[in-house]
Amino acid sequence: MGVLNKRIAVLAGDGIGPEVCQEAVRVLKAVSEKFGHEFTFDRQPMGACAIEATGDPLPDQTLEACYLADAILLGAIGDPKYDNNPAAKVRPEQGLLKLRKSLGLYANIRPVTAYEVLLPYSPLKDARIAGADMLFFRELTGGIYFGEKGRIADSAYDHCTYSRFEIARIAHLAFKAAQNRRGKLTLVDKANVLETSRLWREVVQEISPSYPDVAVDYLFVDNAAMQLILNPKQFDVILTENMFGDILSDEASVIAGSLGLLPSASVGETAALFEPIHGSYPQAKGKNIANPIAMILSAAMMLEHFGLQQEADLVRRSVQVALDKKIVTQDLTPPTLAYSTEQVGAFIAYCVLGGA
Amino acid sequence: MGVLNKRIAVLAGDGIGPEVCQEAVRVLKAVSEKFGHEFTFDRQPMGACAIEATGDPLPDQTLEACYLADAILLGAIGDPKYDNNPAAKVRPEQGLLKLRKSLGLYANIRPVTAYEVLLPYSPLKDARIAGADMLFFRELTGGIYFGEKGRIADSAYDHCTYSRFEIARIAHLAFKAAQNRRGKLTLVDKANVLETSRLWREVVQEISPSYPDVAVDYLFVDNAAMQLILNPKQFDVILTENMFGDILSDEASVIAGSLGLLPSASVGETAALFEPIHGSYPQAKGKNIANPIAMILSAAMMLEHFGLQQEADLVRRSVQVALDKKIVTQDLTPPTLAYSTEQVGAFIAYCVLGGA
Lengths: 356, 356
Ligand SMILES: [Mg+2]
Ligand SMILES: [Mg+2]
Hints:
Two copies of one chain form a homodimer.
Chain A: E1 5-13, H1 17-35, E2 38-43, H2 48-54, H3 60-68, E3 71-76, H4 80-83, H5 92-103, E4 107-113, H6 126-129, E5 133-139, E6 149-152, E7 155-163, H7 164-179, E8 184-189, H8 195-207, E9 215-220, H9 221-230, E10 237-240, H10 242-255, E11 263-267, E12 272-276, H11 293-305, H12 309-324, H13 341-352
Parallel strand pairs in A: 1-2, 1-3, 3-12, 5-10, 8-9, 8-10
Antiparallel strand pairs in A: 4-5, 4-11, 6-7, 11-12
Helix pairs in contact in A: 1-11, 1-13, 7-8, 9-10, 11-12, 12-13
Bound molecules: magnesium ion (2 copies).
């Protein structure tokens, strides 16, 4: 891969978002310095900070910058001021929902990795969780969350719908990812009960012969909820519909021991957004104590999305060095031994440049 | 409570069902001997054994016996012969589904208790799971599993519907149970997205003032999937709709360390069925090694349902004595120290009679 020129929209957002975004940008600058790529960063407001400034959680100018960008880096969105006010008409989260919809981000991709240093923080016993490494593909724009809903007399309803097209496009992404990993794909559904699940199974079965190097298995969602705890190591790529993915990827995220290390990507036909799975953590805002690693690993997913596999691997190895050397924030070590957000980011950037 | 006369339909079923049922009946006979109750046991075929005998997994005669009974004790249903044969027209599980439907069993009730002796078997670290004790109320006859479903062109659909009546009747059961426990009820829903969830929340909020001694809180289903692992001790009674209950009660069941200890009840307006949550475990059939405790604790739930609180408590205490003295089957102890199914049942019956 030659030298690239990429435009990156940076939506730092609220709470600790700006602090962790700054460290991701620092690491990306180290990557561009080392490999000669040209990254342009276009900083734009979204969320509570955008409401303050413009009254709109997703101003037109921000949305336009996202359309123009090759990828979007998002920090975190949300402020307690809005959470605790049920009368608030405009909410920071609306900006993110509108952004996902406007960009057609139909696949949410979430790795869950059991880092050695995190084992003491996992709620699972070490032997269960050590070595787990899975990758969720959650459909993000269909299913019951986006179906017709309403009231009739004394009843309420929600409709779940999936088309072959919606299933096939994310299934292909998941199969391709499995080819680059351990060659296993697990479809999670409830095909013994739901018609939409039977369609998911049909489409995956039809696509499967095109990926002969990927072994496919099927798990009912209730069993999957058990297996994630009983034996998380059995999973490689997990493919599932929107609501099941919401529940299971959140369940899986806590078994790794820290939300502060887990990145995510949301991709569409022409756009891609990268963000940590943690929230805006307003209590830590401005204190220089937030863990920037999930954000930095989100930037690594972005590099991979650009086809920069070597660069992505280097960022991940640099993160691993920081973890191994315990150059980590106070969520992962006693306060007296903890480093600041900036120090952790600077160390990882230093490693990227060949320093460690 | 005086002396009672109760007719109990016993559907021992398949695999280890008959063996564990025999021990539950043994314990119930000890209870009737000690307290002077008259229990009549009406044994009827259901499941694979009923298909062998009559071609029907739920013969009319069995269904009739269930209508006549004050309660139903069910062992386990299922045989690999049918699981591995997709062409099989009649399946053992159909008998159970038809029975639940015929009897209108709308509430599935499942306790999850972290027994001290099971801590080494739990996938969670001891400090997380020790002391956890929760009770699920899962709606069992509504929601997306029973909604209209089908195909239109290249799409599939499943409809989720709930009425106020369906929600209110199980909510009242859950509130009453919370009054007799630690006075906390958690409604799990996805009210930020689903209209049916908003109706659940409305109905629970309307009912709540009638139970001023019960504190109610609300949790989104994805967060609940995390909290069950992060801090299971926070839960007392958990109330939820059919599909969320399917996923979360299965997730919760594995954190306790053994499915062999978990009972359940399914109740309707006029009928009640008690069964262990484990399956028919065909590999262990006839070997006298199956753990009978989940079945015996299901019988204890039945006693409680009859209003026999003292009797139910005695059975539970007797089970605790067996666990404490390690008079348990080989799933909970090294094989050389293990007792047989019959020995465990006999010891618990002996305790009930005042022997230990
Ligand atoms: Mg979620
Ligand atoms: Mg289930």
